[in-house]
Amino acid sequence: MGLAASQARFLGLTARKSNVEFQGQQVNQARTALANRVNGLYDEYNNLNAPVPPSVNDYVKTSYKVDSTPEGYEIQDFSKITEGEYEGYYNLRLQYEENVAVIYPYTSNNTRITAKKGDTSYSELTFEIGSQVYHYDENDIENSTITKITGDYEKYPGLEEIMKQAGVTEGTYYMYKVNGVCYYTSEKDLDNTVFEQGEDGKEIYAGAYTFEYQGSKKQTKIIDAVGALTQDSTGRIQDVRIIQCDDDPDLVNNEYSISVSQEDDQKAYNDAMNEYNYQQQVYEKEVQRINNETEKIQTEDRSLELKLRQLDTEQKALSTEMEALQTTLKDTIEKVFKTYDS
Prior knowledge:
By secondary structure, this protein is of the alpha+beta class.
């Protein structure tokens, strides 16, 4: 290879080596960026707070029952009064459970009604409800098991409330009784029932029919009062003296002992457990995200590492060839100068 060709080859190799070194710098910068991203993910992981499951022992409800009160009051909440007429006493929130009357529908899907109507109302009426049969005969009231009601509605449990809900103050109702519970239907509802013509001038209906009856349910009542409390060293209430109570004046100026009981607050515990399960899902999702991103970065880094090794191999090969060319160039130059020297 001539001197000019060798020189050109050397310059080409120098350019390629510079380019390889530049690519290597870029790869190293990219790997540094990936390392910074991994460190950021590691910091995110360290900053995650793993949720702690709730303990049943942390959800114990303390109840304070006011003894000797007909309603069975419980102290739901209390707070000290810091100013005003009752400064030094406590605002009390008392609650109790009250049975309230509720009207319920009762629908019998297997009902057969036989009716015979006179000029103004039903003279005969039969309710067949399953295997039970109830009847009304205006000519045999004493032996009738269905009661016809046209007034004195207050005598019949729940009837006034049924009429109130229907928006009426008068009317004719028919009632039968099962185990002390009175079931009602109005003459108007019977008139609106589609009967089929039967024998002896009687009409027949078979199918589902809805009666109404009075039931009851528990309802929480809340009253407010002002009282003086005596507490033991642990802060538990021992007794209370009522100073003022507009909602129940009979409590005023009376002192009551307090019965203390504790029970697991299952509702609060369940709410806390639901929140824990949700936070655990969020935590696991974040951990999975960090792991996935870390694995992806590690895959990219391995690819860059392989590329860097290839560049390093190429750079060494270029260096070796350049060293050989330098030797060739040196020998060629020496020969040329020796020729001229001679």
